[in-house]
Protein backbone atom coordinates (compact mmCIF):
# COMPACT_ATOMS: atom_id res chain seq x y z
CA UNK A 1 0.00 0.00 0.00
CA UNK A 2 2.84 2.42 0.78
CA UNK A 3 4.42 1.82 -2.64
CA UNK A 4 1.00 2.30 -4.25
CA UNK A 5 0.50 5.66 -2.52
CA UNK A 6 3.99 6.87 -3.42
CA UNK A 7 3.32 6.14 -7.09
CA UNK A 8 -0.11 7.73 -6.79
CA UNK A 9 1.33 10.96 -5.37
CA UNK A 10 3.96 11.07 -8.12
CA UNK A 11 1.21 10.68 -10.73
CA UNK A 12 -0.89 13.45 -9.17
CA UNK A 13 2.08 15.82 -8.97
CA UNK A 14 2.98 15.21 -12.64
CA UNK A 15 -0.61 15.71 -13.87
CA UNK A 16 -1.66 19.36 -13.44
CA UNK A 17 -4.03 19.10 -16.44
CA UNK A 18 -5.90 16.34 -18.30
CA UNK A 19 -3.29 16.56 -21.05
CA UNK A 20 -0.49 15.82 -18.62
CA UNK A 21 -2.51 13.06 -16.94
CA UNK A 22 -3.05 11.28 -20.26
CA UNK A 23 0.63 11.72 -21.14
CA UNK A 24 1.57 10.10 -17.83
CA UNK A 25 -0.82 7.22 -18.46
CA UNK A 26 0.64 6.71 -21.94
CA UNK A 27 4.13 6.36 -20.44
CA UNK A 28 2.93 3.71 -17.99
CA UNK A 29 1.00 1.83 -20.67
CA UNK A 30 3.89 1.79 -23.12
CA UNK A 31 6.24 0.61 -20.38
CA UNK A 32 3.84 -2.28 -19.75
CA UNK A 33 3.85 -3.31 -23.43
CA UNK A 34 0.61 -1.70 -24.63
CA UNK A 35 0.58 -0.62 -28.28
CA UNK A 36 -0.53 2.90 -29.25
CA UNK A 37 -3.22 3.08 -31.95
CA UNK A 38 -4.21 6.20 -33.85
CA UNK A 39 -7.88 6.71 -34.62
CA UNK A 40 -6.79 7.82 -38.10
CA UNK A 41 -5.30 4.42 -38.96
CA UNK A 42 -6.75 1.00 -39.70
CA UNK A 43 -6.55 -1.32 -36.70
CA UNK A 44 -5.60 -4.97 -36.64
CA UNK A 45 -6.33 -6.30 -33.17
CA UNK A 46 -4.76 -9.62 -32.21
CA UNK A 47 -5.96 -12.14 -29.57
CA UNK A 48 -4.24 -11.31 -26.31
CA UNK A 49 -3.10 -7.95 -27.65
CA UNK A 50 -2.96 -4.86 -25.43
CA UNK A 51 -3.69 -1.45 -26.91
CA UNK A 52 -4.59 2.16 -26.17
CA UNK A 53 -5.82 5.17 -28.07
CA UNK A 54 -6.28 8.82 -27.16
CA UNK A 55 -8.54 11.63 -28.30
CA UNK A 56 -7.81 15.35 -27.97
CA UNK A 57 -4.80 14.40 -25.86
CA UNK A 58 -7.10 14.54 -22.84
CA UNK A 59 -9.11 11.28 -23.04
CA UNK A 60 -7.74 7.77 -23.23
CA UNK A 61 -9.01 4.21 -23.64
CA UNK A 62 -6.75 1.22 -22.91
CA UNK A 63 -7.77 -2.39 -23.29
CA UNK A 64 -6.67 -6.01 -23.44
CA UNK A 65 -8.13 -8.38 -26.01
CA UNK A 66 -9.04 -11.86 -24.69
CA UNK A 67 -6.32 -14.41 -25.36
CA UNK A 68 -8.56 -17.34 -26.25
CA UNK A 69 -12.22 -16.58 -25.56
CA UNK A 70 -14.47 -14.72 -27.99
CA UNK A 71 -15.56 -11.28 -26.81
CA UNK A 72 -19.20 -11.95 -27.63
CA UNK A 73 -19.12 -15.00 -25.38
CA UNK A 74 -17.02 -13.69 -22.45
CA UNK A 75 -18.10 -10.06 -22.32
CA UNK A 76 -15.92 -7.06 -21.51
CA UNK A 77 -14.88 -5.82 -18.07
CA UNK A 78 -14.86 -2.00 -18.19
CA UNK A 79 -13.80 0.66 -15.69
CA UNK A 80 -14.51 4.34 -16.33
CA UNK A 81 -13.21 7.57 -14.79
CA UNK A 82 -12.58 11.17 -15.87
CA UNK A 83 -9.40 13.17 -16.33
CA UNK A 84 -10.67 16.70 -15.69
CA UNK A 85 -11.07 18.61 -12.42
CA UNK A 86 -12.63 21.98 -11.57
CA UNK A 87 -10.09 24.75 -12.02
CA UNK A 88 -9.41 28.23 -13.36
CA UNK A 89 -8.60 28.48 -17.07
CA UNK A 90 -6.76 31.34 -18.76
CA UNK A 91 -8.95 33.38 -21.11
CA UNK A 92 -8.01 33.80 -24.82
CA UNK A 93 -7.19 37.51 -24.39
CA UNK A 94 -6.17 37.46 -20.73
CA UNK A 95 -3.81 40.42 -20.31
CA UNK A 96 -4.90 42.99 -17.75
CA UNK A 97 -2.57 45.92 -17.01
CA UNK A 98 -3.75 47.69 -13.89
CA UNK A 99 -1.87 49.91 -11.43
CA UNK A 100 1.50 48.60 -12.58
CA UNK A 101 0.58 44.92 -12.26
CA UNK A 102 0.23 42.34 -15.01
CA UNK A 103 -2.82 40.18 -14.38
CA UNK A 104 -4.51 37.38 -16.28
CA UNK A 105 -8.26 37.06 -16.72
CA UNK A 106 -9.54 33.58 -15.91
CA UNK A 107 -12.68 31.54 -16.48
CA UNK A 108 -14.07 29.08 -13.94
CA UNK A 109 -14.12 25.50 -15.26
CA UNK A 110 -16.68 23.26 -13.59
CA UNK A 111 -18.14 23.64 -10.11
CA UNK A 112 -15.02 24.81 -8.32
CA UNK A 113 -14.91 25.90 -4.69
CA UNK A 114 -13.46 29.37 -5.17
CA UNK A 115 -12.41 30.48 -1.67
CA UNK A 116 -9.47 28.04 -1.43
CA UNK A 117 -7.90 29.53 -4.58
CA UNK A 118 -6.93 32.72 -2.78
CA UNK A 119 -3.37 33.18 -1.44
CA UNK A 120 -2.01 30.00 -3.04
CA UNK A 121 1.25 29.58 -4.95
CA UNK A 122 -0.17 29.05 -8.43
CA UNK A 123 1.44 27.89 -11.65
CA UNK A 124 0.21 27.49 -15.23
CA UNK A 125 0.05 24.32 -17.34
CA UNK A 126 -1.73 22.91 -20.36
CA UNK A 127 -1.40 22.59 -24.11
CA UNK A 128 -0.09 25.24 -26.51
CA UNK A 129 -0.65 25.29 -30.27
CA UNK A 130 1.90 27.13 -32.42
CA UNK A 131 3.14 27.69 -35.96
CA UNK A 132 6.64 26.44 -36.68
CA UNK A 133 9.22 28.33 -38.68
CA UNK A 134 8.52 26.09 -41.71
CA UNK A 135 4.82 27.04 -41.66
CA UNK A 136 3.50 23.80 -40.15
CA UNK A 137 1.32 23.69 -37.05
CA UNK A 138 2.32 21.83 -33.91
CA UNK A 139 1.38 21.42 -30.26
CA UNK A 140 3.32 21.06 -27.05
CA UNK A 141 2.56 20.47 -23.40
CA UNK A 142 3.63 23.31 -21.16
CA UNK A 143 4.09 23.40 -17.41
CA UNK A 144 5.75 26.40 -15.81
CA UNK A 145 6.36 24.10 -12.84
CA UNK A 146 6.99 26.93 -10.41
CA UNK A 147 4.85 29.54 -8.65
CA UNK A 148 4.15 32.34 -11.12
CA UNK A 149 0.74 33.66 -10.07
CA UNK A 150 -1.43 34.41 -7.04
CA UNK A 151 -4.92 35.68 -6.19
CA UNK A 152 -4.31 37.86 -3.12
CA UNK A 153 -7.11 38.24 -0.60
CA UNK A 154 -8.35 41.68 0.32
CA UNK A 155 -7.33 42.64 3.86
CA UNK A 156 -10.14 42.35 6.39
CA UNK A 157 -9.53 46.01 7.33
CA UNK A 158 -10.86 46.97 3.88
CA UNK A 159 -13.80 44.55 3.94
CA UNK A 160 -15.28 44.20 7.41
CA UNK A 161 -18.33 42.35 6.03
CA UNK A 162 -16.28 39.51 4.51
CA UNK A 163 -17.57 36.98 7.07
CA UNK A 164 -21.22 37.95 6.60
CA UNK A 165 -22.03 35.85 3.56
CA UNK A 166 -20.05 37.82 1.00
CA UNK A 167 -20.09 35.95 -2.34
CA UNK A 168 -17.17 35.81 -4.79
CA UNK A 169 -17.58 37.65 -8.08
CA UNK A 170 -15.65 35.40 -10.48
CA UNK A 171 -15.18 38.17 -13.04
CA UNK A 172 -13.73 40.81 -10.74
CA UNK A 173 -12.21 38.88 -7.80
CA UNK A 174 -10.31 36.10 -9.58
CA UNK A 175 -7.87 37.70 -12.08
CA UNK A 176 -4.46 36.47 -10.98
CA UNK A 177 -1.41 38.65 -10.36
CA UNK A 178 1.39 37.49 -12.65
CA UNK A 179 3.94 40.18 -11.87
CA UNK A 180 4.76 43.85 -12.16
CA UNK A 181 4.95 45.36 -15.62
CA UNK A 182 5.81 48.91 -16.65
CA UNK A 183 5.04 48.12 -20.30
CA UNK A 184 2.26 46.19 -22.02
CA UNK A 185 2.97 42.45 -21.98
CA UNK A 186 1.99 39.87 -24.59
CA UNK A 187 0.98 36.61 -22.89
CA UNK A 188 1.56 34.56 -26.04
CA UNK A 189 5.09 35.93 -26.25
CA UNK A 190 5.61 34.84 -22.64
CA UNK A 191 4.42 31.35 -23.57
CA UNK A 192 6.79 31.23 -26.54
CA UNK A 193 9.72 32.18 -24.33
CA UNK A 194 8.80 29.56 -21.72
CA UNK A 195 8.43 26.81 -24.34
CA UNK A 196 11.83 27.68 -25.81
CA UNK A 197 13.38 27.69 -22.34
CA UNK A 198 11.99 24.16 -21.86
CA UNK A 199 13.54 22.92 -25.11
CA UNK A 200 10.88 23.43 -27.80
CA UNK A 201 12.57 24.92 -30.85
CA UNK A 202 11.39 26.29 -34.18
CA UNK A 203 8.45 28.29 -32.80
CA UNK A 204 7.46 31.16 -35.03
CA UNK A 205 4.29 32.19 -33.22
CA UNK A 206 1.99 30.87 -30.49
CA UNK A 207 -1.49 30.69 -32.00
CA UNK A 208 -3.66 29.41 -29.16
CA UNK A 209 -3.68 27.45 -25.92
CA UNK A 210 -5.74 25.58 -23.32
CA UNK A 211 -4.10 26.53 -20.03
CA UNK A 212 -5.13 26.09 -16.41
CA UNK A 213 -3.96 27.50 -13.11
CA UNK A 214 -2.95 24.95 -10.48
CA UNK A 215 -1.61 24.85 -6.93
CA UNK A 216 2.09 24.03 -6.77
CA UNK A 217 1.88 22.48 -3.30
CA UNK A 218 2.87 18.83 -3.66
CA UNK A 219 0.64 15.92 -2.57
CA UNK A 220 1.29 14.78 0.99
CA UNK A 221 0.33 12.26 3.62
CA UNK A 222 -1.26 13.73 6.73
CA UNK A 223 -2.46 12.56 10.14
CA UNK A 224 -0.90 11.21 13.30
CA UNK A 225 -0.40 7.90 11.50
CA UNK A 226 -0.26 9.32 7.95
CA UNK A 227 -3.72 7.93 7.35
CA UNK A 228 -4.85 10.68 4.95
CA UNK A 229 -3.81 11.76 1.46
CA UNK A 230 -4.02 15.44 0.52
CA UNK A 231 -3.67 16.66 -3.06
CA UNK A 232 -5.21 18.65 -5.84
CA UNK A 233 -7.33 16.83 -8.44
CA UNK A 234 -8.17 13.74 -6.37
CA UNK A 235 -11.53 14.10 -8.11
CA UNK A 236 -10.96 12.31 -10.36
CA UNK A 237 -7.30 11.54 -11.16
CA UNK A 238 -7.41 9.27 -8.12
CA UNK A 239 -9.80 6.96 -9.98
CA UNK A 240 -7.81 7.22 -13.21
CA UNK A 241 -4.71 6.00 -11.38
CA UNK A 242 -6.61 3.25 -9.54
CA UNK A 243 -8.17 1.99 -12.77
CA UNK A 244 -4.84 2.06 -14.60
CA UNK A 245 -3.05 0.31 -11.73
CA UNK A 246 -5.72 -2.39 -11.69
CA UNK A 247 -5.52 -2.91 -15.46
CA UNK A 248 -1.71 -3.11 -15.47
CA UNK A 249 -1.63 -5.51 -12.52
CA UNK A 250 -4.47 -7.79 -13.56
CA UNK A 251 -3.58 -11.30 -14.61
CA UNK A 252 -6.39 -12.06 -16.99
CA UNK A 253 -7.25 -13.69 -20.27
CA UNK A 254 -10.57 -11.86 -20.34
CA UNK A 255 -11.37 -8.71 -22.28
CA UNK A 256 -10.57 -5.72 -20.03
CA UNK A 257 -10.92 -1.99 -20.75
CA UNK A 258 -10.25 1.34 -19.02
CA UNK A 259 -11.81 4.56 -20.30
CA UNK A 260 -10.86 7.96 -18.87
CA UNK A 261 -12.87 10.80 -20.41
CA UNK A 262 -12.36 14.53 -20.32
CA UNK A 263 -15.10 17.14 -19.69
CA UNK A 264 -17.09 15.26 -17.02
CA UNK A 265 -17.08 18.33 -14.79
CA UNK A 266 -18.92 20.34 -17.44
CA UNK A 267 -21.47 17.76 -18.57
CA UNK A 268 -19.47 15.29 -20.72
CA UNK A 269 -20.96 16.61 -23.97
CA UNK A 270 -17.93 16.72 -26.27
CA UNK A 271 -16.12 14.49 -28.75
CA UNK A 272 -13.76 13.46 -25.94
CA UNK A 273 -16.44 13.30 -23.22
CA UNK A 274 -18.48 10.33 -22.06
CA UNK A 275 -21.51 11.65 -23.93
CA UNK A 276 -19.46 11.62 -27.11
CA UNK A 277 -18.85 8.57 -29.33
CA UNK A 278 -15.27 7.70 -28.35
CA UNK A 279 -16.04 4.54 -26.37
CA UNK A 280 -18.65 3.39 -28.88
CA UNK A 281 -16.15 3.89 -31.72
CA UNK A 282 -13.53 1.74 -29.97
CA UNK A 283 -16.07 -1.01 -29.25
CA UNK A 284 -17.14 -1.00 -32.91
CA UNK A 285 -13.54 -1.56 -33.95
CA UNK A 286 -13.04 -4.27 -31.36
CA UNK A 287 -16.07 -6.18 -32.61
CA UNK A 288 -17.35 -4.80 -35.94
CA UNK A 289 -20.34 -7.15 -36.36
CA UNK A 290 -23.36 -5.37 -34.77
CA UNK A 291 -25.09 -8.50 -33.47
CA UNK A 292 -21.89 -9.91 -32.00
CA UNK A 293 -21.17 -6.57 -30.36
CA UNK A 294 -24.63 -6.50 -28.80
CA UNK A 295 -24.09 -10.01 -27.47
CA UNK A 296 -20.79 -8.88 -25.98
CA UNK A 297 -22.34 -5.85 -24.29
CA UNK A 298 -25.13 -7.99 -22.85
CA UNK A 299 -22.42 -10.03 -21.11
CA UNK A 300 -20.36 -6.99 -20.06
CA UNK A 301 -20.29 -4.58 -17.12
CA UNK A 302 -19.00 -1.05 -16.54
CA UNK A 303 -17.77 0.17 -13.16
CA UNK A 304 -17.78 3.96 -13.07
CA UNK A 305 -15.20 5.08 -10.52
CA UNK A 306 -15.63 8.63 -9.22
CA UNK A 307 -15.02 9.85 -5.69
CA UNK A 308 -17.81 9.96 -3.10
CA UNK A 309 -18.66 12.44 -0.35
CA UNK A 310 -17.25 11.28 2.97
CA UNK A 311 -19.22 12.42 6.01
CA UNK A 312 -17.56 15.61 7.27
CA UNK A 313 -17.40 15.63 11.10
CA UNK A 314 -18.26 19.37 11.16
CA UNK A 315 -21.16 19.01 8.74
CA UNK A 316 -22.58 15.56 9.41
CA UNK A 317 -26.12 16.91 9.02
CA UNK A 318 -25.50 17.24 5.25
CA UNK A 319 -25.65 13.43 4.97
CA UNK A 320 -28.42 10.89 5.27
CA UNK A 321 -27.97 9.38 8.73
CA UNK A 322 -27.58 5.82 7.43
CA UNK A 323 -25.38 6.69 4.45
CA UNK A 324 -22.39 8.68 5.67
CA UNK A 325 -19.20 7.07 4.27
CA UNK A 326 -16.08 7.27 6.42
CA UNK A 327 -12.54 7.72 5.13
CA UNK A 328 -10.45 4.53 5.27
CA UNK A 329 -13.56 2.42 5.73
CA UNK A 330 -13.77 1.03 2.20
CA UNK A 331 -14.97 2.02 -1.27
CA UNK A 332 -18.46 3.45 -1.60
CA UNK A 333 -21.35 2.21 -3.75
CA UNK A 334 -23.33 5.25 -4.92
CA UNK A 335 -27.09 4.85 -5.32
CA UNK A 336 -29.76 7.22 -6.61
CA UNK A 337 -33.38 6.31 -7.35
CA UNK A 338 -33.54 8.92 -10.11
CA UNK A 339 -30.63 7.38 -12.06
CA UNK A 340 -28.09 10.08 -11.32
CA UNK A 341 -25.92 7.06 -10.59
CA UNK A 342 -25.98 3.92 -12.73
CA UNK A 343 -26.04 1.42 -9.83
CA UNK A 344 -28.72 -1.27 -9.78
CA UNK A 345 -29.33 -3.90 -7.12
CA UNK A 346 -27.81 -6.47 -9.50
CA UNK A 347 -24.58 -4.58 -10.15
CA UNK A 348 -24.31 -3.51 -6.51
CA UNK A 349 -24.55 -7.11 -5.37
CA UNK A 350 -21.87 -8.10 -7.89
CA UNK A 351 -19.48 -5.46 -6.53
CA UNK A 352 -20.21 -6.39 -2.91
CA UNK A 353 -19.34 -9.99 -3.70
CA UNK A 354 -16.05 -9.00 -5.37
CA UNK A 355 -15.12 -6.88 -2.37
CA UNK A 356 -15.97 -9.70 0.04
CA UNK A 357 -13.67 -12.05 -1.88
CA UNK A 358 -10.86 -9.51 -1.34
CA UNK A 359 -11.93 -8.96 2.30
CA UNK A 360 -12.46 -5.26 1.54
CA UNK A 361 -15.27 -3.45 3.41
CA UNK A 362 -17.92 -1.63 1.36
CA UNK A 363 -19.98 1.46 2.19
CA UNK A 364 -23.05 3.06 0.63
CA UNK A 365 -23.89 6.63 -0.27
CA UNK A 366 -27.36 8.02 -0.89
CA UNK A 367 -27.83 11.79 -0.95
CA UNK A 368 -30.29 13.32 1.49
CA UNK A 369 -33.78 13.20 0.00
CA UNK A 370 -34.11 16.98 0.33
CA UNK A 371 -30.85 17.70 -1.53
CA UNK A 372 -29.87 17.56 -5.20
CA UNK A 373 -27.62 14.74 -6.35
CA UNK A 374 -24.58 15.03 -8.57
CA UNK A 375 -23.80 12.56 -11.32
CA UNK A 376 -20.92 10.81 -13.10
CA UNK A 377 -20.00 9.29 -16.44
CA UNK A 378 -21.72 6.06 -15.30
CA UNK A 379 -25.31 6.77 -16.42
CA UNK A 380 -24.07 8.51 -19.58
CA UNK A 381 -21.81 5.68 -20.71
CA UNK A 382 -24.40 3.05 -19.78
CA UNK A 383 -27.01 4.82 -21.88
CA UNK A 384 -24.65 5.40 -24.82
CA UNK A 385 -23.57 1.77 -25.24
CA UNK A 386 -26.33 -0.14 -23.39
CA UNK A 387 -24.36 -1.94 -20.70
CA UNK A 388 -24.96 -2.86 -17.05
CA UNK A 389 -23.17 -0.40 -14.80
CA UNK A 390 -22.64 0.82 -11.28
CA UNK A 391 -21.10 3.86 -9.64
CA UNK A 392 -18.49 3.50 -6.93
CA UNK A 393 -15.74 5.67 -5.51
CA UNK A 394 -13.29 6.47 -2.77
CA UNK A 395 -14.76 8.69 -0.02
CA UNK A 396 -13.18 12.12 0.26
CA UNK A 397 -13.45 15.56 1.87
CA UNK A 398 -13.33 18.98 0.17
CA UNK A 399 -14.52 17.78 -3.24
CA UNK A 400 -13.89 20.42 -5.92
CA UNK A 401 -11.51 22.36 -3.67
CA UNK A 402 -8.02 23.30 -4.82
CA UNK A 403 -6.78 20.69 -2.30
CA UNK A 404 -8.80 17.59 -1.50
CA UNK A 405 -8.48 14.85 1.11
CA UNK A 406 -8.96 11.08 1.02
CA UNK A 407 -8.01 8.04 3.07
CA UNK A 408 -4.60 6.47 2.43
CA UNK A 409 -6.02 2.94 2.53
CA UNK A 410 -9.15 3.36 0.41
CA UNK A 411 -7.44 3.77 -2.96
CA UNK A 412 -5.36 0.64 -2.46
CA UNK A 413 -8.42 -1.37 -1.40
CA UNK A 414 -10.39 -0.23 -4.43
CA UNK A 415 -7.53 -1.19 -6.73
CA UNK A 416 -7.56 -4.69 -5.23
CA UNK A 417 -11.28 -5.03 -5.98
CA UNK A 418 -10.89 -3.73 -9.54
CA UNK A 419 -8.02 -6.14 -10.20
CA UNK A 420 -10.34 -9.00 -9.28
CA UNK A 421 -13.08 -7.48 -11.46
CA UNK A 422 -10.77 -7.44 -14.48
CA UNK A 423 -9.84 -11.09 -13.89
CA UNK A 424 -13.36 -12.32 -13.13
CA UNK A 425 -14.26 -15.23 -15.42
CA UNK A 426 -18.03 -14.70 -15.36
CA UNK A 427 -19.95 -11.44 -15.05
CA UNK A 428 -23.24 -13.26 -14.54
From TrEMBL:
Keywords recorded for this protein, A-Z: Aminopeptidase, Hydrolase, Metal-binding, Metalloprotease, Protease, Zinc
Required co-factors: Zn(2+)
Recorded superkingdom: Bacteria
Stored SUPFAM superfamilies: Aminopeptidase/glucanase lid domain, Zn-dependent exopeptidases
Record-linked Pfam families: Peptidase_M18
Bilayer-spanning residue ranges: none
Signal peptide: none
Listed GO MF terms: aminopeptidase activity
Top EC category: hydrolase
EC number: 3.4.11.-
InterPro entries registered for this protein in UniProt: Peptidase_M18 (IPR001948), Peptidase_M18_dom2 (IPR023358)
Family designation: Belongs to the peptidase M18 family.
PANTHER family referenced in this protein's UniProt entry, alphabetically: ASPARTYL AMINOPEPTIDASE
Name the UniProt record assigns to this protein: M18 family aminopeptidase
Lineage: Bacteria, Pseudomonadati, Pseudomonadota, Gammaproteobacteria, Oceanospirillales
Amino acid sequence: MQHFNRELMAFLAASPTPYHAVAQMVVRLESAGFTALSERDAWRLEPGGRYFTTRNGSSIIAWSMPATAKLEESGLRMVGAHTDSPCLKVKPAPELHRHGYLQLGVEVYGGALLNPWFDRDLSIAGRVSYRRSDGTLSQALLDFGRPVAVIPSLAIHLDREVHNGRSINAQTYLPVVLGQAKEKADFRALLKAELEAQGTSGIERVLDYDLSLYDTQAPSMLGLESEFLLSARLDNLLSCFIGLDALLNSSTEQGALLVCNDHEEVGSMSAAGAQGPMLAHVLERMLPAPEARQRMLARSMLISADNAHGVHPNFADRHDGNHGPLLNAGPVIKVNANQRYATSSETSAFFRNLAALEEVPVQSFVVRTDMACGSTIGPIAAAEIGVRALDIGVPQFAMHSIREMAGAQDSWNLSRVLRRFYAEVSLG
